[in-house]
Amino acid sequence: MEREGSGSGRAVRSNADLNPRYFKVGMWSHLLHRISGVAIVFFLLMHIWEITSVVRGGAEGFSAKMAGMAGRIWVIGEWFLFLALVFHGINGIRLALLDLGWGVHTQKRNFWVVMVLSAVAIVIGSYFFVMRFLAYPWAA
Amino acid sequence: MKGSLWAWIFQRITAVLLVVLVAIHFGIMHFVDPTAVITFGDSQIRLQSALYMLVDVGLLVLGLYHGLNGIRNIVLDYWPNLGRVATWVLAIIGVVAVGYGSMALAAFVAQ
Question: Number of A:B CB contacts under 8 A?
Answer without folding.
Answer: 84
